[in-house]
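User: Good morning. I'm curious how adenosine-5'-triphosphate would be positioned relative to this chain. Could you predict the structure with it bound?
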Amino acid sequence: MTGETAVRVALDGLVEWGRRLGQVAARERVFVALSGPLGAGKTTLVKAACEGAGFTGDVTSPTFTLVQRYPAEEPIYHADLYRIDRPEELRELGWDDLTGGQAAVFVEWADKAGEELPADRWDIRLEYADGGETRTVEASVLGSAPAIPAIP
Ligand SMILES: Nc1ncnc2c1ncn2[C@@H]1O[C@H](COP(=O)(O)OP(=O)(O)OP(=O)(O)O)[C@@H](O)[C@H]1O
Ligand SMILES: [Mg+2]
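Assistant: Good morning! Here's the predicted structure, ligand included:
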């Protein structure tokens, strides 16, 4: 069980960690709940995770499509709940499929899903530090999700 302590990382550290996260998340089909303010680095982390999982194409916040699928040996799904106002709207995204444990799923603004988040997951919170130059990262393993790689 990891969690609680906030680790400070620069951009290169976040990217390096993200690649390792992606390898494990893809292999173990982990649901990853990302939170933190606008511009904190959620999409940056997902892009690194996709690289780690072997997907090298474009990764952007799926703000309009809401869910994207990146093909790799083990595909990664990427959702952004920024525009979700009520947890009931999750149904329209195919939330039940996303939370079924069939693939790795990275969700930005995951706090908007409230009680609808799956019990087995990684919770990752990014916050601004050093006047915006670095970030703090808090990561926790919930339920029976696998161990999370250590933050560099
Ligand atoms: N230590 C750091 N970790 C992550 N990102 C950093 C760091 N330092 C600077 N950045 C920069 O912060 C920006 C983060 O943007 P990104 O799109 O990943 O944020 P986001 O959390 O997905 O935002 P949104 O809520 O709008 O989706 C990028 O330009 C990135 O280069
Ligand atoms: Mg984003």
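DSSP finds three helices and seven strands in the chain. The first helix runs from residue 11 to 28.
Let me know if you'd like a different ligand tried.
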